[in-house]
Amino acid sequence: MAKGLTSRKEDYSKWYNEIVERADLAEHSAVRGCMVIKPYGYAIWEKMQKELDRMFKETGHSNAYFPLFVPKSLFEAEEKNAEGFAKECAVVTHYRLKNDEENPGKLKVDEKAKLEEELVVRPTSEAIIWNTYKGWIQSYRDLPILVNQWANVVRWEMRTRLFLRTAEFLWQEGHTAHATKEEAIEEAEQMMRVYTEFAEKFMGMPVIQGLKSESERFAGAVETYCIEALMQDGKALQAGTSHFLGQNFAKAFDVKYTAQDGKLDHVWATSWGVSTRLMGALIMTHSDDKGLVLPPRLAPFEVAMVPIYKGEEQRQEVVSHLSEIKKELEAKGISVKLDDRDTHKPGWKFAEYELKGVPLRIAMGMRDIEKGSVEVARRDTLEKKFYDRQDIANKVDHLLENIQDNLYRKAIDFREENSHTANDYTEFKQLIKEGGFVYAHWDGTAETEEKIKQETKATIRCIPLDQKQEAGKCICSGEPSQGRVIFAKAY
RNA sequence: CGGGGCGUAGCGUAGCCCGGUUAUCGCGCCUGCUUUGGGAGCAGGAGGUCGCAAGUUCGAAUCUUGCCGCCCCGACCA
Fold it and tell me: Is A2 in a helix, a strand, or coil?
């Protein structure tokens, strides 16, 4: 009996939730707005972490860890940053509970244990980190500081969606300090490029690099670079951001250094981050109506092996053949799960590994052993083929590479098919309704952007870095514009 | 914080309007036999403070009142 998923086209949200749940990635926690990432989902996140971490180290960064709590006085130091996040902060006000005499067995907050100063649970760590950097920096010799932190942060969201928006989420946040403006800008741009490379090479997800408009800019940043991806329902997803912070935080926390020429100046800063939201992006970029589809480079295991047999004797024979193949694959660095459980039937396993997005499935039974063949099914195309037993390791290796490329190419094709240019407001509204990226002229003002948002629900996703200089008129106000920006409805 | 909806087994639900034996069905779970190349079949079984509290009544999942919790749509947002 087939227990299918809801179709993507029928109800995208439902489809998404079913994949997250049935592929065993995550679930809602009993804690409001919070998420439990289950082992299989976390294994994917760990692969992401590993690759990102490697790329950060290759670009000269080191990991460190800063406190979860930010004293309110530090949090409010950089005004724009504080104002931007104030509405969604969890705040610790007490440090002790006591027995509730009126309700035996229950606890209540001990009012005597009220904190002198409230502690904000970090929604982002600029404040606590810049307060720390203050003590680390005196001279140009102390610069640059290139630090990354893997951490959890809390943003008290009113409405949540697994991986895309939860009250607590996991991420990495890089925080760097530089002697010059140019160096800081180069750092922010470099990290955007690192994110781009990760998204495209590992996630198989094409992204557009760009700058945020003022209203979408990070609170406290001078400039926000971003990568934007297009999901299969035609909505945009901000996949990563890298901020040039100017001297805003250095001034707020009074972080100065003495330059080679003896002059005292504030340092220049960047911060950049990607979160478990990338998991949501990964799911929505490749998955289909049969479940998750994972790019080989991020799959917890690239190959699932399913033995087919009747009786214990056959089972042992088939499993021993598969074990040999497994060794050959592992020798090539391919990760394999041999599912020899007798508690589930082959058909059940086929469906299960499809739901979980395993790139390749190898099935083997007595027939194959006799013929010297192996059945290989690829997840991206759902194509099944028999390959010669002798050559299987090379074939699998080749297929995995092919799948990785194919997923990326398919995602690019999808994005191109769903990217359009609008030349007037009527056309714009129609295109936005249909979904996808819409390239259009904009007069550069926040007022117009807001008006368009109110009228169409579309926002400026970014001003693309490769924007062509092109004289035109704003689709909304008719004022002159130098180039097109990307509009879309967004997550 | 505004508008709407829902709370019945691990999950999804019927029953409620019009009160009446042992609370319905499906999935899942357990046992046994037969099965195993696309989510097996049959037989048996376990599992429930019907969100909580009070009230009306001979009798409440069902009616009344209060409370609690959750979901959806807005506003906010990576």
Answer: coil
Read off the pLDDT of residues A146-160 as tens digits, 9 standing for 90 and up: 999 999 999 988 778
Phi, psi of A5 (to 5 degrees): -85, 160
* A30 CB inside 7 Å of strand B: no
**Interval A303-361: pLDDT, tens:** 999 999 999 999 999 999 999 999 999 999 999 999 999 999 999 999 999 999 999 99
Widest pairwise Cα distance in chain A: 83
Helix (H, G, I), strand (E, B) or coil at A471: coil
* Reduced 3-state DSSP string for A174-230: EEEEECCHHHHHHHHHHHHHHHHHHHHHHCCCCCEEEECCHHHCCCCCCEEEEEEEE
Q: Phi/psi of residue A307, each to 5°?
A: -80, 145
Nearest-angstrom CA–CA distance, A148 and A62? 6
- Chain A 313-352 residues in 7 Å CB range of strand B: 342, 345-348, 350-352
The alpha-carbon radius of gyration of chain A (Å, integer) is 26
Confirm whether any atom of chain B, the nucleic acid strand, is less than 7 Å from CB of A164: yes
How does the average pLDDT of chain A come out, rounded?
Answer: 94
Nucleotide nearest to A369 (CA to C1'): B37
Per DSSP, the three-state class of A43 is helix
- Within 7 Å: CB of A87 and strand B? yes
| Contact flag, residue A159 CB and nucleic strand B, below 7 A | yes
- The length of chain A is 491
ipTM of the modeled complex: 0.87
How distant is the alpha carbon of residue A52 from its chain centre? 11
**Is the Cβ atom of A16 within 7 Å of strand B at any atom?**
no
Look at residue A163 and give its three-state secondary structure.
Answer: coil
